[in-house]
Amino acid sequence: MKLHFLRYFTVLAEELHFGRAADRLAITQPPLSLAIKALEEELGVQLLLRSSKHVELTPAGSAFLEEARQILDRVARASSIALAVASGSRGRLEVGMTGSLVYRGVPAIVQRFNADDHGIELILREMSTAEELQGLLHGQLDAGFLNAFVVPPQLRSLPLIEDEFVLCLPASHRCAGAKAVELNELADERFVMFSREVSPANYDNVVAIFSRAGVHPKTVHAARQWLTIVAMVAEGLGVSLVPRSLARSNVDNVRFVPFTGAPAIAPALLVWNPARMSPALERFIASAAATIEELRKDFRPKRSRMTRRGQAKLIKRSHQR
After folding, report:
1. Do 101 and 147 touch, CB atoms closer than 8 A?
2. What is the DSSP track for 246-297?
3. Which of 227, 214, 218, 208 is nearest to 315 (CA)?
4. Buried b (16+ CB within 10 A) or exposed e, 54-71
5. Pick from 289, 281, 267: nearest CA to 98
6. Could you say which DSSP state residue 193 is in?
7. Model-level pTM?
8. Rounded distance, CA 233 to CA 191, Å?
9. How does pLDDT run across 56-110, given as a tens digit for each residue?
10. Is 90 exceeded by the pLDDT of residue 290?
11. pLDDT digits (tens, 9 = 90+) for 116-153
12. pLDDT score for 87
């Protein structure tokens, strides 16, 4: 069924006069008459009673008019939505997030983006880093907040606010009140570690920190999320290294203590697939970049910072191990 036949019919049904309807449609009367006849033949019902002086809707025509109006309204709405999405003024973004990054500025990024009147719906989904990378590569996510230093070459990334690793100790631990601790003092401790299959980057980063300190941690438990690790430490199941930002989780019975030596970066990135770039995603990335810059001054670790060259060397060493 041709859409312009529906439009011709609705105008004629409103005017009940072929001449006036043709004028509104900017056509002549013969094409209008042929269109109405073709529509009735396709439907197999008479929609209009007409004579040289009178046009009237049949009961079937009255019922069809209501449905035709709804169809034309939906088509117009679909067109406007498509144009809005194409221009970036409307749409939906599926964004992954590892749980611990709720303390690395992600809520502020989302709130700022949602505060703008752009009509774009943003949906956050908690996922592991590995799941996010797969989702980004296979078109199941528009963007993702994840823990990693580097991402596959098909993806692009933006660093989140800076963070570094600290010791996470039970509140009753002998070192819980120290200003700083040497890692080799904990060589005989039982450690709660990140599960390597869930996030190889998180696991490898922690192992690299221990290796530089000459410590071979005795792993007794493996967890899938940083927050789970903190909770396990709070219950006395071991000690761990975690990003400093997790201190903002306010979990009871744990202490976050710096360790001596060069600061160890806790990586976190906003990642997206440029092959799936859209105006809505462009808006989100620009908004996120602006928010991250504003947050950096408030979330800088309190310890002395490495230079960019020092950070680059540390990252390179950790990935060579």
Report:
1. yes
2. GGGG--TTEEEE-BSSS--B---EEEE-GGG--HHHHHHHHHHHHHHHHHHH
3. 208
4. ebebeeebeebbeebeee
5. 267
6. E
7. 0.64
8. 9
9. 999 998 899 988 888 887 877 666 556 655 655 557 889 999 988 999 999 999 9
10. yes
11. 867 788 999 999 888 999 999 998 899 999 988 889 99
12. 57
Strands 55-57 and 48-50: antiparallel
Backbone angles phi, psi at 126, to 5 degrees: -75, 125
pLDDT tens, residue by residue, 204-260: 888 888 888 888 888 888 888 889 999 999 999 999 999 999 998 899 999 999 998
In sequence order, what E strands does the chain have? 48-50, 55-57, 91-97, 120-126, 143-146, 156-159, 165-170, 190-194, 218-223, 240-243, 254-257, 269-272
The closest alpha carbon to 193, from 172, 166, 173, 220, belongs to 220
Which residues have CB under 8 Å from 171's CB, separation 6+? Answer: 234, 252, 253, 254, 255
Q: What size, in residues, is the chain?
A: 321
- Per the CB < 8 A criterion, the answer to whether 179 and 302 are in contact is no
Please report, as a single letter, which amino acid is at residue 147: N
Backbone angles phi, psi at 96, to 5 degrees: -85, 160
List own/partner pairs for 106-109 with CB under 8 A and 24 or more apart.
106/145, 106/160, 108/291, 108/295, 109/270, 109/287, 109/288, 109/291, 109/292
What is the C-alpha to C-alpha distance for residues 135 and 46, in angstroms, rounded to an integer? 53
Task: Tell me the two tokens of residue 94.
Answer: 């599926």
**279, two tokens:** 């105006």
